[in-house]
Amino acid sequence: MRMRHKYRKSSAFHCNAGSPCALLAVVWSLVACTLMVQFYCYTRHDDKVEHPIRLNHRPLTRELEEVEEENFQMPPPRGKRSPRAIKRRGPRRPPSAIDEFLDESSELRNFFFPDRRTAIDPFKEGNNSMYFYPGQQWLDTDGNPIQAHGGGLLYDENSETYYWYGENKDGPTYQAHSGGAARVDIIGVSCYSSSDLWTWKNEGVVLPGEEMNDTHDLYKLNVLERPKVIHNDKTGQYVMWMHIDDVNYTKASVGVAVSDSPSGPFEYLYSKRPHGFESRDMTIFKDDDGKAYLVYSSEDNSELHISSLTEDYLDISQPMRRILIGQHREAPALFKHQGVYYMVTSGCTGWAPNRALAHASESIMGPWETMGNPCVGGNRIFRMTTFFSQSTFVVPLPGLPNSFIFMADRWNPAELRDSRYVWLPLTVGGPVDEPLEYNFGFPVWSRVSVFWHRKWKLPDGWRIR
Ligand code: DGJ
């Protein structure tokens, strides 16, 4: 009978801990693990690992992904500047492109804010029908400039119609106090409807501001920003969440309103600080499983929080997660693609434009990773300023592979009512630009790309359903 050795030594490896052989084994295991992780990543995302501008096999979206340059010349220095612009940047520093953008007397004014002659007009467009012109005035079916800033879209399955909700800023711009940010009194939330995403009918102010009652959240001297609406399939209600604040942005709360119809009227319910935390720029997101989430800038805008909503979407619930801590991001616009969550955010520079960043996560609760600047085309300053605009929403385009519409605001702090809309094609595909924190630099996520176009339209064959 053979003796069984309880502590039989392996005949393959004769390694003592700490010996060079053990070290080699550890190194080889690490290499093997890394290769397995990489193999897993490539197989899971193999359809997305491609460069966004080499997508010739996708005839529907090829045009949207063309890289378009923008000839942008800074005007030569000149003597006379607006005193407000000089105060903003100091007398000695030469004006940057952003200073030019913010200077209402700049020679580039008409470049950034072209006048009404070039407006997108659903009744006068002829051959230009269905073309988006980022930054140009956009008229509704009554011929008035659309007032839906900081907004978002809802696709209503019941009526097979898109609804666009946003801030109505059609009042005078002023500063509440010297040195304070430009503002417009609360007029309310506007709503527009469309079946083609291009022709918009004004449905009116579906949540009006409050003229007289100065204790009301919606009192005209307060702040109502970034309204977003989702539909609750269980209750049948349309639920609006928005940023509610006082004139100095110290209330830092979210507000909730509800309606039985997408075109309102909405009944304002209440405001609160979610989980007791400050909440400024925000959005809401309804997932495929019907669960909904609130995403908000918190802790002095230094981080974002994501919180679940209750089943009726009328309140927040647990869990809540702190994400992008210390990254100082705002204007979150969240979307989902092939099971992965993506988000575009801006930096925090008031009404002035800055660089967008794209983030991704396997789970909505994180960990979220930052992938870099999604902007493609234009020129460097265009890309560093999100094409002189700030994210607000990303619209899914069912049936168009990997494609979305990126919705942004080109704020005009000198005349906020004349702020413009920058809608551009957004695609998901190709390797990311920046090394990723949690993945040892491996391309787990696909690149989010927002393509600059002076003029573009959705593919002719595209229909909502
Ligand atoms: C940046 C935010 O994204 C906007 O919604 C608005 O709050 C401005 N700041 C105000 O300066």
Automatic annotation (TrEMBL):
Matching SUPFAM superfamilies: Arabinanase/levansucrase/invertase (SSF75005)
CDD domains: GH43_CtGH43-like (cd18825)
InterPro entries assigned: Glyco_hydro_43, Glyco_hydro_beta-prop_sf
Source domain of life: Eukaryota
Family that this chain belongs to: Belongs to the glycosyl hydrolase 43 family.
Recorded GO MF terms: hydrolase activity, hydrolyzing O-glycosyl compounds
GO biological process, alphabetically ordered: carbohydrate metabolic process
Keywords: Glycosidase, Hydrolase, Membrane, Transmembrane, Transmembrane helix
Name of the protein in its database record: Uncharacterized protein
Transmembrane segments: 21-40
Pfam family, one: Glyco_hydro_43
Biased composition (Basic residues): 78-92
Region span, Disordered: 66-98
